Amino acid sequence: MSFLLEGLLSVTWQQLVMYLVGIALIWLAVEKEYEPSLLLPMGFGAILVNLPLSGVLDQLVQGKVPAAGIIEWLYKVGIESSEMMPLLLFIGIGAMIDFGPLLSQPFYFLFGAAAQFGIFAAILIACLMGFDLKDAASIGIIGAADGPTSILVSQVLGSNYIGPIAVAAYSYMALVPIIQPFAIKLVTTEKERRIHMSYNPKSISRTTRIAFPIAVTIIVGFVSPQSVALVGFLMFGNLLRECGVLNSLSKTAQDDLVNLITLLLGLTISFSMRAEQFVNPQTIMIMALGLVAFIFDTVAGVLFAKLVNVVLRIFRRPPVNPMIGGCGISAFPMSSRVVQRLATEAEKGNIILMQAAGTNVAGQVASVIAGGLVISIVSQYL
């Protein structure tokens, strides 16, 4: 009885807040189906790590010697010491991606690169708000709309806010269908959203598809060595997909590996969601800055596409639908589907899905490269 009372009396108001946060994440996963494979374990993990005297953090061996609990152990082995879980997840993500639309129209990569502007804008704003450089850089990566990249960058740079950054990154990924339409409509007219685009894909040879992930890894390795782990695992997953001799492994990476690692990652990252680390004013600021970065990414991509149209008009070439520039974030394939829905709303029968998908996969690669560049640049000053 005394042990029971000790647990109840040791609950803090911050822990009660985290119970509500955990329940909210579970509700979003179950009721709204927003990234359920990650938000569900993350929400449940947020409750687990904030229970008083929680055994998932500390275990008593023979009644007195403390040992790491399962979630703390997973965090130290899978994220803190090796970044293993986010990197393994990239193999599965790479196996899911068809780079055909991008290889057919390589200029889509320019839109993907332009849509990373929000990352660097958020870094600057975070520095002006008083965050130190490593935390500001980690917060800015939320704008990539790529959860594994956000976790990896914040861990490598030693950010003090890994938990809030992970929650913000995955929450905004899940909220793409809500946030992006607002941001895109903010900077486009209905006439622009009705622009049709012809799609005449070139035939991409098997050799080109196999050579692409190898070439990208080598080039990025020379240009930004800190990106090799991120880009290399992503491209290895794509190589599994395209080589044609490991179809069973490719399917396993896309399904079983992604699902298992995502589930474990959700539970593991909850180690950084302990009340004493999570419930503070900085968390609210991080969520706000993440939203700013996300919106800036979308707006920058759209505005860049509109600038491209100015050039195309000079050369009397057909314009692009500027909405595809907003697909340059990493949330594949959600962002391309959102843009297609907006195009259909503007004019029934306006199909720009493949062009949007080309920009979307370009954004996936560009966001990973941006994460590596941020690590490389910031590491020079730490």
From TrEMBL:
Its EC number is 4.1.1.112. It comes from the Bacteria. The chain crosses the membrane at residues 12-30, 37-57, 84-100, 107-131, 169-189, 210-237, 285-308, 351-378. One of its GO terms (cellular component) is plasma membrane. The keyword Transmembrane helix applies. It is found in: Cell membrane. The keyword Electron transport does not apply. Keywords: Cell membrane, Ion transport, Lyase, Membrane, Sodium, Sodium transport, Translocase, Transmembrane, Transmembrane helix, Transport. Pfam families: OAD_beta (PF03977). Coiled coil: none annotated. GO terms for molecular function: oxaloacetate decarboxylase activity. It is a multi-pass membrane protein. One of its GO terms (biological process) is sodium ion transport. InterPro entries: OadB_MmdB (IPR005661). This is Oxaloacetate decarboxylase beta subunit.
